[in-house]
Amino acid sequence: MADDNTDRRRTDEMSLDELREEIRTIDRDIVELIAQRTYVAEAIADVKEEQGLPTTDEEQEQAVMERAGDNAEQFDVDSNLVKAVFRLLIELNKVEQRESR
Ligand SMILES: O=C(O)C(=O)C[C@]1(C(=O)O)C=C[C@@H](O)C=C1
């Protein structure tokens, strides 16, 4: 996070344009991380198909959601909103996994 990162400038010393540039960089990083997560999920889908397992794993989804809540608390952001984002990420993977079968 910007405030925790000593390489990044303090946000209270930045202009509006600089702050928006910071957001722009973070937004790109978020999409890059989503792409990485999706890529790994595709590899998981291949393994599950080889092993004859279903695309949906409710227990794993539960673990992901719990972790999302814990991480949200750690970084002091709204845990329900973070969980909603992770619910969408899981759904994205499930649609892709079903389509690739
Ligand atoms: O861990 C898996 O088995 C995945 O396919 C990944 C993932 C996820 O996006 O976290 C997606 C679908 C499953 O139901 C559970 C978790």
From TrEMBL:
It comes from the Archaea. Its EC number is 5.4.99.5. NCBIfam families: CM_archaeal (TIGR01791). GO terms for biological process: carboxylic acid metabolic process. The keyword Membrane does not apply. It is an enzyme of class 5 (isomerase). Keywords: Isomerase. This is Chorismate mutase. GO terms for molecular function: chorismate mutase activity. The keyword Isomerase applies. Residues 10-101 form the Chorismate mutase domain. SMART domains: CM_2. Pfam families: CM_2. Gene3D superfamilies: Chorismate mutase (1.20.59.10).
